[in-house]
Every structure is written in structure tokens, then in C-alpha cells.
Pentatricopeptide repeat-containing protein (Dichanthelium oligosanthes), 91 residues
Amino acid sequence: MYFVGNCLIDMYSKCGDVDTARNVFDGMPKRNEVSWTSMMSGYGMHGRGNEAMDIFENMQKAGFVPDDVSFLLPVQSIMLVLLTCWLALGD
């Protein structure tokens, strides 16, 4: 059950369709650490830092303890947003 859902989240995120990835995530009856991390990664790779932070907070509320990777993903997404803004200001 986890494997297919997690793969779909990853695939849609990598294809740029993070909203569909979120629909898959929301439709999963149960989630594991990979589900939460995959969704945070999807938001992170597309610069959606607020959503990554929301997932991070909800993961903790659901009783999952963040590991090193899941802790850094929201930070990565926020840094991507800051870098994009900095580059835009340079133009």
C-alpha cells in the first residue's frame, strides 16, 4: 500500500505536478516516513517552502519523529525560495 502511493508522490513531484502528488498523499489511508518525506521533497524541489513546513509540522503531529533528511527538506525549500528571490533582484 505504501510503496505505490509513495512512488506516485515521487513521480508526480518530479514531473512538476506537486498538486496531484498532494492529492495522492491526502488520499492515502495510512502514511509512513517515506510518504511524509516524499511530499516534503516535492514541495522543496519546487520552492514551496510554506507547504513543506506544513507537512513537516503535520508529520510531527501524526507522531513521526523527523530524521536528518526530513529535518533538512523544509530548510532546503526555504533556501531555494531565498535564492530565487536573490537572483531575481540581481536582474
